[in-house]
Design brief:
Blueprint: H1 3-26, E1 37-44, E2 47-54, H2 62-76, H3 84-89, E3 93-95, H4 101-114, H5 124-129, H6 142-149, E4 157-159, E5 163-166, H7 179-193, E6 199-203, E7 206-210, E8 219-224, E9 236-242, E10 246-251, E11 256-259, E12 262-265, E13 280-287, H8 290-303, H9 305-314, E14 319-325, E15 331-335, E16 343-344
Antiparallel strand pairs: 1-2, 2-6, 3-5, 4-5, 6-7, 7-10, 8-9, 9-16, 10-13, 11-12, 13-14, 14-15
Helix pairs in contact: 2-7, 4-8, 7-8
Length: about 350
């Protein structure tokens, strides 16, 4: 055998040996090595979503997530003219077509009763009257508000697992204060069913987490100072670590209008018919599901601080962090004791 043939054979043996070693090492990863974290994002519900999750199979779930959120809007969005909720608002009753309508009705009723009416999805006609719905309108006068209040009240809604019926003409539903949180739960449950153990599902600033982040720490979210001047970077007043929980923050500091020098926020008190003028200016709620966190963060904006404290004493599964104004207009903070060491001020 000449030297050229020998060198060729030796080179071939070397290449095969290197390939075998590489294959063996690649398939002998430590059992505790973490799977890669994947990031997907997109647009939904007039805002954006961001999802981070770990998956050993490196699966990309963006097409499925987009499909879920699109189907969700076809059920509960008041901005989609053919949605289930829009069709119900134009009729006397509605037979459910999707799996989304009944669960959000059921949870809405629960929060409505526990908050003594502070959370009420039938507030929709008032939202429209104040110009916070799909259509822009003129500033309403007091007589119009009093007329609209006659058909605001969740007690005028009756439902089963199959359909929903209005017991008073002109009653309309709006789930914008709870549906976004519920859509996060739906996506969360989809990923969980796919075997995802570590994830953060965020949409429009609300989110729900499971497991730990890429650094193997609890997922954490910062709470912004609601009095940050427009155009300036928001200052963080707190960081809250989440342990398999959901979080939602409500406030009137981003969505509002000014009329005759008076500021009007988008949170409407269903009892008075007017935008709320309460002490709480930022309401953050941590709950087992994002639907609960979303609904309750809205409810506490309406109740005000003292009533919120009373309710929280009975709703032990909730945690809360409020930024409120004292009698002198100075910002103060309150948080429930069950946040423990999971909040950094």
């Amino acid at each position: 055998m000449n030297n050229r043939k020998k060198n060729s054979i030796y080179s071939l043996i070397l290449i095969v040996a290197v390939a075998i070693i590489w294959f063996y090492r690649d398939n002998q990863k430590p059992e505790n090595e973490n799977p890669p974290y994947i990031f997907i994002s997109g647009e939904a519900q007039g805002t954006t979503y961001n999802i981070t999750y770990s998956d050993a199979q490196n699966r990309i779930f963006k097409p499925e997530v987009d499909s879920i959120l699109n189907a969700f809007d076809l059920s509960l969005s008041t901005y989609v003219k053919s949605s289930e909720i829009v069709r119900f608002n134009k009729s006397d009753s509605f037979q459910f077509e999707s799996p989304f309508f009944y669960p959000v009705l059921e949870k809405s009723k629960e929060i409505y009763e526990a908050s003594e009416g502070a959370f009420d999805p039938t507030v929709y006609p008032l939202i429209e009257a104040w110009g916070f719905g799909p259509e822009k309108v003129d500033f309403p006068d007091s007589s119009r508000i009093e007329e609209i209040k006659k058909y605001v009240g969740f007690e005028y809604i009756k439902f089963t697992t199959q359909k929903v019926v209005k017991e008073k003409e002109k009653v309309s539903l709006d789930f914008n204060a709870i549906a976004q949180g519920y859509s996060i739960d739906v996506v969360f449950d989809f990923l969980k069913a796919k075997g995802v153990e570590n994830m953060m599902v965020e949409l429009g600033g609300e989110l729900r987490v499971k497991g730990k982040n890429e650094n193997q720490d609890l997922w954490a979210i910062g709470i912004d100072d609601p009095k940050t001047e427009p155009g300036k970077q928001a200052k963080r007043v707190a960081i809250i670590e989440l342990d398999n929980e959901a979080i939602s923050t409500s406030g009137n500091y981003r969505k509002f209008f000014v009329h005759n020098g008076q500021k009007y926020g988008h949170s409407i008190n269903p009892k008075t018919g007017y935008p709320i003028q309460r002490d709480i200016i930022s309401s953050t709620v941590i709950a087992p599901t994002c639907m609960e966190a979303d609904g309750w963060s809205t409810a506490f904006m309406v109740t005000g601080l003292e009533k919120a404290k009373e309710i929280l004493a009975t709703q032990k599964h909730l945690k809360a962090f409020f930024i409120y104004e004292d009698a002198n207009g100075n910002s103060q903070q309150f948080h429930t004791e069950n946040l423990g060491e999971n909040i950094i001020l």
